Amino acid sequence: MDKVVKSESEWRVQLSPEEFRVLRQAGTEPAFTGEYVDTKTVGVYSCRACGAELFRSETKFESHCGWPSFFEPSKSEAVTLIEDRSLGMSRVEVRCARCDSHLGHVFHGEGYGTPTDDRYCINSVSLRLRPVE
């Protein structure tokens, strides 16, 4: 997979202000406002910035946290995990491995009945769903 590298000004032209804030500045969309929070559509979730495949609908589950949740990425190399000590807490940030865009955070050991016990808590604005027809 080829890395996508763009300048801040190139990203600003390509992305909406909200997409830029979340994807490039590690922002977070308000809980329960994203377009994919409750969707049950079968398909593939890709990075809104570069189009890389990130998650598949069969790994999406209802966590009731306010953001789309997945128990694993579609491929282990699809995302990069980075320690995040912002906001006075220790979390693990999830980024697109192809373009380094911020997607959300991953949490482990919360007791969800999923195969991995991971919750990839991802901003809808970071994703684009391509339905399977």
Walk me through this protein's architecture:
This protein has helices at residues 8-14, 17-23, and strands spanning 43-47, 53-56, 60-61, 69-70, 79-84, 91-96, 102-108, 118-122, 127-131. The protein is mainly β and 133 residues long. The protein has one domain (8-131): Peptide methionine sulfoxide reductase (Metal Binding Protein, Guanine Nucleotide Exchange Factor, Chain A), CATH 2.170.150. The strands form two sheets. Strands 3-4-8-7-6-5 form a six-stranded antiparallel sheet, with no helix packed on it. Strand 1 (43-47) and strand 2 (53-56) form a beta hairpin. The mean pLDDT is 95.
List the defining traits of the structure above.
3-stranded antiparallel sheet; mainly beta; 6-stranded antiparallel sheet; Metal Binding Protein, Guanine Nucleotide Exchange Factor, Chain A
Secondary structure layout plus pairing:
Layout: H1 8-14, H2 17-23, E1 43-47, E2 53-56, E3 60-61, E4 69-70, E5 79-84, E6 91-96, E7 102-108, E8 118-122, E9 127-131
Antiparallel strand pairs: 1-2, 1-9, 3-4, 4-8, 5-6, 6-7, 7-8
Q: Domains counted in the coordinates: how many?
A: 1
- Can you count the helices? 2
Percent range of helical residues: 10-25%
Cα-based radius of gyration, to the nearest Å: 14 Å
Please indicate the percent range of residues in DSSP E strands (runs of 2 or more): 25-35%
Corresponding CATH superfamily: Peptide methionine sulfoxide reductase
Question: What's the CATH class label?
Answer: Mainly Beta
Instruction: Count the E strands.
Output: 9
Sheet with most strands: strand arrangement: 3-4-8-7-6-5
List unreliable stretches of 5+ residues: none
CATH topology, by name, is Metal Binding Protein, Guanine Nucleotide Exchange Factor, Chain A
Query: Cα distance, first to last residue?
Result: 25 Å
* Helix-strand category: mainly beta
